[in-house]
Amino acid sequence: MLKHRGFPGRLPGTDFQFVIRRANKQGATKIIKRERFRDRAPADKRADAGFMAALWAQFGEEPFERGNLDAGRLSWLFGREVVPAEEPFDPASYDALLKIDLKKAQASFPEVFAAPEEFIWDDEDEEGDWA
Questions:
Q1: Is residue 127 in a domain?
Q2: Domain for residue 128, yes or no?
Q3: Most buried residue among 26, 35, 55, 113 by CB atoms closer than 10 A?
Q4: How far is it, in rounded angstroms, from Cα 127 to Cα 38?
């Protein structure tokens, strides 16, 4: 499993996880398309925006390997802002390639692209995880 160095471990000040520490012995958790309802909590919406900002800062429009990115957090964006970058796509593989659908991402998260400085990730704790 590829570990994305420099990628924030979680949304600062929350328990919203962005990456996992180690591979699951039974295999990667399957990425699914989760429905985002309008009445989601503001914290959930902020976590989605923060994760998109981290993806954009780390990968831009280039395809990227799933690696240690959290399947649960990816699932909130999968099928809309984050799409498969290869066919056939294996949603239960750490090696699966994904990419950002820029037009959909800009429509869903205009704040990420209008004010990227709001999503600066520069504080690391002693373990190397992002605080």
A1: no
A2: no
A3: 55
A4: 36
What are 34's two structure tokens?
Answer: 């989760």
Q: What pLDDT, in 10s, does the model give residues 68-125?
A: 999 999 999 999 999 999 999 999 999 999 999 999 999 999 988 887 667 655 544 4
CA 16 to chain centre: 11
What is the domain range of residue 55? 1-6+14-122
Whether residue 30 lies inside any domain: the answer is yes
In a domain, 40, yes or no: yes
Q: Tell me how far apart the alpha carbons of residues 65 and 17 are, in angstroms, rounded to a whole number.
A: 18
Query: What six digits make up the tokens of 100?
Result: 């950002």
Closest-CA residue to 19 (of 28, 29, 9):
9
